[in-house]
Amino acid sequence: MEPVSLQDFVCALDLASLPRVLRVCSGVYFQGSIYEISGNECCLSTGDLIKVTQVRLQKVVCENPGTGQTMEITPSFCGHFSPLTGPQSYATLEELLSAATRRSKKLPIGFMSTHRITTEARVVPRDQPLLLEDVEAYHRTYRARCVLDTETRPFILHLPLSQKGPFWEWEPGAPRPLLQALQDPALSDRLFTCPTLPWRSLILRPQYELQAIMHLRRTIVKIPSTLEVDVEDVTASSQHIHFIQPLLLSEALARGGPFPLPTEILEVPEGPPVFLSPWIGSLQKGQKLCIHGLASPPWRVLVSTKGRKVPRHFLISGAYQGKLRRRPREFLTAYDLLGALRPGQPLRVVATKDCEGEGIDSPGFASLAVGDRLEVLRCGQAHGAKGQDIDVLVCQRLSDQAEEEEEEYAEIEDEDQILLPLYFSSSFVEEMSDNRRYNLEDLTAQFPLPCEVKVVAKDSSLPVDPLPSFPGLRLEDKITEPFLVVSLDSNPDMCFEIPPRWLDLTVAETEGQPGQPAGPLAVATVEELTEAFYYTLRQLPDFENQPPPPRPPKSQGLRGQKKQSGKDKSRQSSQVSGLQQAPLLPKPKMKTLPQIAKDSSNTYSKVSAHRKDPRHTKSVTKDPDDDEHDYEEIFERFQNTL
């Protein structure tokens, strides 16, 4: 085939013969863009091969051959077109008949008039198709016997050959829709007429968009047919050529198969590594892979080790078959206790650190000692030292006495509640007696995350399971993300899972059948993460927790105010020499809290104060304002005594 322009090739193309392979014989380059303009390919080099897979009509430019004016119509244009036999019109019917005789054209002849024709029998509208069937002699003159096709029946008209036009000759037959007029090869160079358009004759110039495949192009290339490039059809001699089309793992996942899919790596994404597994080093350009399909189940658990100076991080598949046992959780602040509180699930902890309430600006706070047992009830609000409301955690102090004593003091213990400000820093360990062995699916379904566990039985399907060697693991969160099961062509029996979201390899499909493993796929269910990728996962929306509330600024409180008052009075006293400051006095008590029922909900409630266990501390029921007055009277009596 000789080289032709791309426009001529597309206009003469039989769409049923697609796909066709073309070779570019003369390249083209548009200065506006190296690669594309408005999504279309605008740079083709000489020698490039193009595999045309689809042709789509974009628009049609209608041109008036007399004036050169143009107008555009869409492919959905509803008008009908009739082809004209020549580029000229005729002034009379006699000229039309003479031109047909010179071309040896036989009757009947189709024609139309650009003006209305009025006869005694009927008025013929302009541009109405007529068929000249014969020439008859009538009173020493000749007249044309014409047929007008109406909706009911044909109507016979007799027009003199001297009838003035102008007239246009057209091909007999029904007018054609736009697409049929363009697809008929015999009408490629003909003039058309359309009653819907303002011009009597026009030239149709279609503009197409070619969708093609090119070497190492990941997406379909779109080429306009008006691109000034010459091409040659080399389909017959290019049957052996395979067009390499890059494919991302995310695209293979989105299209859903077919699997297994043999591929070859073309490019590995740049950036820090994701996993520390041995197979990660094999993912290089040229490595052949087999994609087996979507991993099941789609969820995984992010895990960090406990008990080591430098923690290690893992991603455990939901298919992990090891056995786990729960470990008590550790909490460093009251805010951590609030985060672990769940409705309907009691949370009991043991204090592992002594803590005095001297520096806490919460009047209802009670000191904690090592071994104190608490049950976390709910979150509430209390009045601070400066009268402002602070967020607190309402807890129930539990007794270690026998059941008989617990029944005796049941009513008293209901009132033995303490308030912990959410910014309070201490150390707590969860109290539990659960020796059951769980699999990963049951554990995550029954208990909220984060959760601390110990692997007591390894996954027997793994050659090496690293998790049982750690004294404890922290299950941080469940991640639902699609993974692809992949194996190396050199070792089809060992499979691993790749997340296209974070490791989106560029591959190309290869020919041939992939190697099939001898038995069921052995998939690695535990993958160690790099520290950089671990923190990438921590930035996911599921990990965006609200930070702890800021601690209120420290203030002197009531004790500091009384010290200052004692200093002023001691300076005024002449009976006590050398007395520089007031003696330490008993800390005033606040009004007793009303009884608070146990509730594990997160609903805030406001409490004004708290009292300690009546078995250890005598309660004071006076108002705090009265405490200040009592303090002054005691101090005055103390001065008089001296």
From TrEMBL:
Please provide, in alphabetical order, the Gene Ontology terms of the cellular component aspect for this entry: cytoplasm; nucleus
Q: In which residue ranges is the amino acid composition biased (Basic residues)?
A: 608-619
Chain ranges of the CABIT domain: 18-237, 277-513
Segment Disordered: which positions? 540-632
Q: Which InterPro entries match?
A: CABIT_dom (IPR025946), THEMIS (IPR039671)
Its GO biological process annotations read:
T cell receptor signaling pathway
Family from the record = Belongs to the themis family.
| Name this polypeptide is given | Protein THEMIS2 isoform X1
Q: Which gene encodes it?
A: THEMIS2
